[in-house]
Amino acid sequence: MKSDRSAGKVTLADVGRVANVSAITVSRALRKPEMVSPKLRQRIEEVVAELGYVPDPVARALASDRTDVIGVLIPSVTNSVFADVLRGIYSVVEGSPFSVQFGNTRYSVLEEERLLRIFLSQRPAGLIVSGIDQSEASTALLTQARCPVVQIMETGPAPVDMMVGFSHRDAAHDATRHLIDGGYRRIAFFGARMDPRTQRRLEGYTQAVKDAGLFDESLMITTPRASTVELGCQMLSDLLARTQDVEAIFCNNDDLALGVLFECQRRRIAVPDDIGLCGFNDLEMMAVANPPITSVRTFRQEMGRRAAEMVLMRVAGEEVPEPVVDLRYELMARQSTRACEEGRRRRVP
Amino acid sequence: MKSDRSAGKVTLADVGRVANVSAITVSRALRKPEMVSPKLRQRIEEVVAELGYVPDPVARALASDRTDVIGVLIPSVTNSVFADVLRGIYSVVEGSPFSVQFGNTRYSVLEEERLLRIFLSQRPAGLIVSGIDQSEASTALLTQARCPVVQIMETGPAPVDMMVGFSHRDAAHDATRHLIDGGYRRIAFFGARMDPRTQRRLEGYTQAVKDAGLFDESLMITTPRASTVELGCQMLSDLLARTQDVEAIFCNNDDLALGVLFECQRRRIAVPDDIGLCGFNDLEMMAVANPPITSVRTFRQEMGRRAAEMVLMRVAGEEVPEPVVDLRYELMARQSTRACEEGRRRRVP
DNA sequence: CATCCAAATGTTAGCGCTGTCATTTGTCAA
DNA sequence: TTGACAAATGACAGCGCTAACATTTGGATG
């Protein structure tokens, strides 16, 4: 039956037979070339090319008890924020013998736990997980994991292993301060999804307005729904139906901000003069909207890249010099908050 | 050394030992319950739960010569179009014992070929690939693949196996017709990336304007760069620098269209009266822009869903009743092309 | 009660690779 | 030349599981 199952499949033994060496020598020639004499190595490489041998990752995984797969857990596939992170991860992993397998937790802690169990049962080379709000069980799983683990998207006090992110709280605080400093007083907060990171942005906002004596609960609108541009329109409509006394809006992400802008245009509300507007993430379109929208730039691709690099370093046995990285953020002040000159950037030190 | 390598790992044999049956019976109880007597099955399930046994997919793959992984090849991770497709795939696969592994071809036919080889060496349960423009070698690999294959994103004459998509040519043709029917004469085309699908959209546009005797090469602007909102702004600026004689613009995707809208707003060009505007894909924001932008709705999530369903059916041994599916498209006529009533939809039959 | 047959369970032999140890070969100093 | 030792290569077992075949069990049947 062999001919049937592995039709055409070339194995290590096949290569060894042709090259007149044992299978294990071929294995070594490919994995640890320095252990095989140069002459033999060359002959083996020739035979490999001739026969078109391709290593079987499955067999390798079973025999060596580890895979070349880096598991990535993100809460959403469609959210462009995570798409950027993924791109960063890919940019690093693509040049390596490793591959990426990712799971979609859909913002559910339980789903995350389930996926974590599945991923761990596959002996990943490394694990990249989003956020710092895992369930207790998940944290335990991660702590016991016999592979490097990187938590991304935010920073926090107790990393399971390594960490790359920034403080959403600080970022939101600074953005709110920017509005306050710009002379706005009645500053609203629009929040969608309200996952842990959004919550912390809300905290930053709250702190800033409270410190300035500007806190007003009626200016906060949040929803568990996912953020969309349309939701931004709706939230503005809702707010204006309640009160006309609004001077600025801090949106917990750029989709909402764009929706607010469109709705303002429709209602002939001048941005930034009637209402100031600030988003979060600094998606590409923010800079070219009309007017350009102030936003908090976050380094999403770099986050992915750094996380992947950390995993690869550790897998290679090297020590990671900086296992907890705070990537900070950058307030991109633009016309929508009366900051006309695009050049006026304040990278948080 | 066993204690070291498989520390804490519970195997089928362990379960069998406790339940007083052979390993293979446990295996069957889990995979083909109907082959095991109800009494025994229950005892086995109890022991499985008690011991916390988790099947090892790697060992299973090696023994059975197949994995539970569905490989997905897409050209971009960040393009929201593919993010939607992925979401569709996930929605189906999540409820099954299968998992998804995806590869990013970055619009490169060679990279696609390379990834295909890697994926195939892992004995995938199925393969979903984007587009119909594979290299000859890739087509050969796919044809020989011993698993179901679905080509997605577009339809074409010679499916390798199964296919879910729509005609980009027809979609673009209809959108252009819509502009012509709306009374626009000088109709420009803005195209970014210019991958095969974009090329076919350009063909549809060209055909439509030629048929109406409105073809003018100087109204076509294309670039190999990836599409962004900013690029839309630039393209409009470029075009207007050359000629003021433009009545409408068909953008090969919504990012560009949004950029054009912003640039029009800045230049005080009235949409739709000075310039008509039509996008492609109908991203969520199109409907709430100011004014709402006409676009060609494509069924991206459904495409992913259908493709995944097809794979699962075939893996289950069922026959797929309709192996080539044309999902069509829907012209969402909105204010940006003088079509005020949102209700005026024309689903292409 | 022997016979037959399907259903239920077990035995055996790998899947392709690598870890571990054993053996061979080559090199150099004494 | 000899021994000592490192470098190079090989033999073997086994990772955890399942396909294929073998055997047992439990009824139904005449």
TrEMBL record, chains A, B:
One of its GO terms (molecular function) is transcription cis-regulatory region binding. Gene3D superfamilies: 3.40.50.2300, lambda repressor-like DNA-binding domains. SMART domains: HTH_LACI. PROSITE patterns: HTH_LACI_2. Residues 10-64 form the HTH lacI-type domain. It holds the Pfam family LacI. CDD domains: HTH_LacI (cd01392), PBP1_GntR (cd01575). SUPFAM superfamilies: lambda repressor-like DNA-binding domains, Periplasmic binding protein-like I. InterPro entries: HTH_LacI, LacI/GalR-like_sensor, Lambda_DNA-bd_dom_sf, Peripla_BP_I. Keywords: DNA-binding, Transcription, Transcription regulation. This is Transcriptional regulator. It comes from Pleomorphomonas diazotrophica.
